[in-house]
Amino acid sequence: MTADSRDRARLPASLALSGAVLVGVLTAAQARVNGSLGTALGDGFVAAAISFGSGFVILVVLSLLLPVGRRGVRTLVGGIRRRAIPWWMLAGGAAGAFTVATQGLAVGVIGVSLFTVGIVAGQSLSGLLLDRLGYGPAGVVAVTVPRLIGGALALGAVALSLVGDGVRGIPLWMLLLPFFAGVGIAWQQATNGRLRQRVGTPLTATLVNFAGGSVLLVAAALVHVGVVGGPASYPSDLWLYLGGAIGVVYIFLSAALVAYTGVLLFGLGSVVGQLLTSVVLDAIWPSSAGPGILQESLMASVALVGVIVAAAPWRRISR
Questions:
Q1: Per-residue pLDDT tens digits for 221-233
Q2: Helix ranges restricted to H, 42-144
Q3: To 10 degrees, the CA torsion angle through 174, 175, 178, 183?
Q4: What is the separation, in whole angstroms, between the first and last Cα of the chain?
Q5: How distant, in Å, are the alpha carbons of 113, 121, 149, 199, 295 from that of 276?
């Protein structure tokens, strides 16, 4: 039995899936924070750069202070020098940067719920494919009939969001961005999980993610400011600047947990957390577009059934 399989055996299936749901809760919360910051600044690119940049600073400090962080960085540098860590394992930050930029550009207009169902569609389809190819740290995960049904139910929740007048007047590109962000999130979770296996700690995998994403987003923000000018002022509400800290927590958890669940099941668990939280957030802070509270609740219920269906055989195998 390998060390990785022994680790999977020590973590109960219910705990791993609960962690995936928590990741979804934090993802929805970050989407609201970054979307609100983008609206307050009038510039989603600057909001994204602030979010990722602050997360990167937090991770640098933690990596310097904690022995496991320093050890992980040494392992990372040694692995890169020996070419034991390929370049594509360092690219997860690109997907994270795209997701955070999408939050800043779209959430303030379409709301967390409609944003989340687009993420659901992308994650579900991408998770199925990545598990089938064995791209994730768990290796090849069988795409069983229950998993297909679970993914189909998640897509059904997406279809429900398109019923009625909730999406009228929303530009097509704003509806498509969350879908492609969802595709990237599933790939990012799998990539960070594999990097975590190589460096031995989720902290270093998360640091790499934020380093790459920060470079891309700061460059994009500088170009955008150079073309259209910078924000006229910056809001004083401190909670608007917490997106980076929230991202540190959920990307750390993603890198640590995806090896126990597979990409698809982890994505479905996080989808439940995202949908349930997005319903609450949109009820408290309604957006200018998107489905109503009853429609959002139905969407979340359908996705929850999908996770239960997809998770059942996984629990039996893990006993």
A1: 999 999 988 888 8
A2: 44-65, 67-81, 92-102, 108-133
A3: -120
A4: 15
A5: 9, 16, 20, 34, 12
Q: For 96-131, what is each residue's pLDDT tens digit? A: 888 888 877 777 777 777 777 777 778 777 877 887
CB atoms within 10 A of CB 165: 9
Q: How far is CA 46 from CA 42, 236, 254, in A?
A: 9, 16, 25
Could you tell me which of 241, 244, 236, 231 has the C-alpha nearest to residue 43? 231
CA 266 to centroid of chain Cα atoms:
11
Per the CB < 8 A criterion, the answer to whether 69 and 62 are in contact is: yes
Alpha-carbon distance of 207 to 11, in angstroms, equals: 24
CA dist., res. 205 & res. 52, Å (int): 15
Best CA proximity match to 17, nearest among 300, 260, 285, 305: 260
Residue 224 tokens read as 């955008």
For 129, phi then psi, to 5°, come to -65, -45
Structure tokens at 4: 């990785």
| Residue 104 pLDDT | 76
CA–CA separation, 178 and 159 (whole Å): 14
Asked if 65 contacts 317 with a C-beta cutoff of 8 angstroms, the reply is: no
Q: 3-state DSSP call for residue 87?
A: helix
Which residue carries 């990545």 as its tokens? 130
Task: Measure the CA–CA gap between 283 and 163, rounded to whole angstroms.
Answer: 19
Q: Count of CB atoms within 10 A of residue 189's CB?
A: 31
Four-residue CA torsion sign, 46, 50, 56, 60: positive
For residues 264 and 147, the answer to whether their CB atoms sit within 8 Å is yes
Closest CA to 243 of 96, 123, 131: 96
pTM passes above 0.85: no
